[in-house]
Amino acid sequence: MKAIGVNQFGNISDLTELDVPKPEPSSGRLIVQTKAFALNPYDLGIIDGTQAKFRPISLPAIPGSDVAGIIVDKDPSITEFNLGDSIVGLANLKGYSEYVSVPYRRATKLPAEISYRTAAGLPNAGITAYDIIFGALKDVSFSKVLIIGASGAVGTNLYQILNSLNKQVSVVINSKYTEQFDTADFNQVVFYDAPKTIEQLGLYDVIINVAPQNELADLYLAHLAPSGLLISTTGIDTFKTDPSRLVDFYNTDYKMNQAALEYLVKKVASQEITVPIAEILNFDVAEIQKAFHALQTHHPRGKYIVEV
Questions:
Q1: pTM
Q2: How, if at all, do strands 16-19 and 66-74 pair?
Q3: Domain harbouring 239, CATH code
Q4: Using alpha carbons only, how large is the chain's radius of gyration in Å?
Q5: If you placed Cys at 121, which of 184, 203, 222, 275 could pair as Cys (CB 3.0 to 4.6 Å)?
Q6: Does 27 fall in a domain?
Q7: 177 and 223: one domain?
Q8: pLDDT (tens digit, 0 to 9) for every residue of the chain, 308 residues total?
Q9: Are residues 129 and 195 in the same domain?
């Protein structure tokens, strides 16, 4: 089958078309004919091998985890899914391929009204947002939330879910994205690149940081209520406050993958959540390379989706 990956760890220019065996169903796995997959910054760590420090990665290395497609084979013991079902799922790796193995506990069925291209943009970012809200914050009583980095994929899912839960949401974004937001969705919209606007914020029960840490950390902390909690997906080193007020999201373990996907699919089907798409790409090495170069130079609002 056709796949896109690297024969040796390297960089984006080393991506190449591969001819690899179609996966066979093993315990707990669905074999999915890939209809669409999303590009994620994490995939760069598979390409250059840096993620090999943390997990086994065999060569040739095929990135990709956010996939949507049709079940064509499966472990016979799996009864929750049938051949021919359309699904969205979170693969371990090898999503950049015509067929991919997906753990059935990290997949959910797709209703007809959700396209494969839309579904492929959900898993990583959507599951992270779900795990923050229903995992890290499950025992926290809160109403006012500030999201730092709301223009990215995780931030976009966060504010849409929180709005659907009737929370009072304010966001920090780059001012160049202002026209892409409906400001009526938020209590306040302020800008990284205009720090004076951040000073106008009130106090928040919860601050969620999904942006790179930077020199504005103290400015954000000034708007955390005395009993408030700050959660960060990019580390907490620059946030100098009582450690009891901080949660380093990636030092926690929620992984409510299937529950998250089921929830997200329902929210998309009911149009409470939309999945911004930056561009639809062909299953082509040059197009994927170009998209990754764009990801490295600027942060588009929305996912790059590859249709297979």
A1: 0.93
A2: unpaired
A3: 3.40.50.720
A4: 20
A5: 275
A6: yes
A7: yes
A8: 999 999 999 999 999 999 999 999 999 999 999 999 999 999 999 999 999 988 899 999 999 999 999 999 999 999 999 999 999 999 999 999 999 999 999 999 999 999 999 999 999 999 999 999 999 999 999 999 999 999 888 999 999 999 999 999 999 998 887 777 777 789 999 998 899 999 999 999 999 999 886 789 999 999 999 999 999 998 898 999 999 999 998 877 666 789 999 999 999 999 999 999 999 999 999 999 999 998 887 767 789 999 99
A9: yes
